[in-house]
TrEMBL record:
It comes from Enhygromyxa salina. The lineage of its organism: Bacteria, Pseudomonadati, Myxococcota, Polyangia, Nannocystales. One of its GO terms (cellular component) is cytosol. Signal peptide: none annotated. The keyword Acetylation does not apply. The chain crosses the membrane at residues 37-53. This is Protein MtfA. The gene is mtfA. Gene3D superfamilies: Collagenase (Catalytic Domain) (3.40.390.10), Glucose-regulated metallo-peptidase M90, N-terminal domain (1.10.472.150). Keywords: Membrane, Transmembrane, Transmembrane helix.
Length: 305
């Protein structure tokens, strides 16, 4: 995410000034000078606040020191963050994390006193998932209309955690993102190609162009034949059990799940994915602007409670 995209902000300022000047011109030559002036100035100011206000808020947010307890949690729990090898990369990651948390609604499931209390670690792991996916895409903006609701553990279609509840995360077509807190944390403790934090946000990228078709918005290869061919070829092989063991079987469900599961493996087992399916790895590497197979892996200590 961009903290202060100067060109964009200048363009918004230009429109705002244009509206204000049009109002003043109307005041000088029109029949209702006060009304025209107030309208032009009001519209200009409103436009600027609406379009650029968030960047001012981002700039003051990142001017504050990053909370040290948050840094400790990221260091302990997020291998991707630990593996970043420059101060600049770490600062960008931290900025993405706090901007995400400042702009998104993340809360526990339930009502009133029964609402689940969620801790900083849970919030940070969700924001870190977004920061990992966006680390090589500085212009990526996450849609802000989706609430992120955290359930204590896996849930079923009725959002109940009883019985054979097996859903660890879910994205509604135009609604909230749901996470199981337990599975979210587990996803960052193991490198088994299963990370629900990344998985659900990969669906959000896929849905950004309006369709859950396994083709994320903004990809240079959005409508490109090779990508669609890769997806249908790999889906066929997965279903016939002829695909190497680098994606979870769930990838064979449909195009959308294929993309989300491939993203998990791309970040969790990049070398294995690159070795077993270089074509798929290259497509994802180009889209995300990252080459995680080249990053020296610095794993968290294996002791967890
Ligand atoms: Zn899914």
């Amino acid at each position: 995410m961009q903290v202060w995209p100067s060109a964009k902000i200048r363009a918004h300022l230009g429109v705002a000034l244009g509206l204000a000047l049009a109002g003043l011109a109307g005041a000088a030559f029109g029949a209702w000078p006060w009304t025209a002036a107030a309208l032009g100035l009001g519209l200009g100011a409103g436009w600027y606040l609406w379009m650029a206000g968030r960047y001012h808020r981002r700039r003051s947010l990142v001017a504050e020191p990053f909370p040290e307890p948050w840094r400790k949690i990221l260091n302990r729990r997020v291998d991707f963050y630990r593996s970043l090898d420059s101060d600049d990369a770490r600062r960008r990651f931290e900025d993405d994390v706090r901007i995400f948390l400042a702009e998104q609604q993340v809360y526990g499931a339930g009502e009133g006193d029964a609402r689940l209390e969620i801790d900083d670690e849970t919030r940070l792991l969700i924001a870190a998932s977004a920061a990992i996916l966006g680390h090589g895409m500085p212009d990526l903006e996450w849609p802000r209309m989706r609430d992120i609701v955290v359930h204590p553990r896996a849930f079923d279609e009725n959002y109940s955690g009883e019985g054979d509840a097996h859903i660890s995360g879910m994205v509604h077509y135009q609604g909230p993102i749901l996470y199981s807190e337990r599975d979210l944390k587990l996803g960052f403790r193991r490198h088994d190609g299963h990370n629900v934090g990344l998985h659900e946000l990969a669906h959000v990228l896929d849905l950004a162009d309006g369709a859950a078709d396994g083709v994320p918005a903004g990809a240079a290869w959005v409508s490109s034949a090779p990508w669609l061919e890769i997806v249908s070829d790999r889906l066929r092989k997965l279903r016939q059990h002829r695909y190497p063991h680098v994606l979870r079987d769930y990838a064979g469900t449909n195009e959308a799940e294929f993309f989300a599961v491939a993203v998990e493996s791309f970040f969790e087992r990049p070398r294995k994915l690159r070795d077993k399916d270089p074509e798929l790895y290259t497509m994802l590497s180009e889209y995300f602007g990252q080459d995680p197979a080249k990053t020296p892996q610095r794993r968290s200590p294996r002791k967890f409670r």
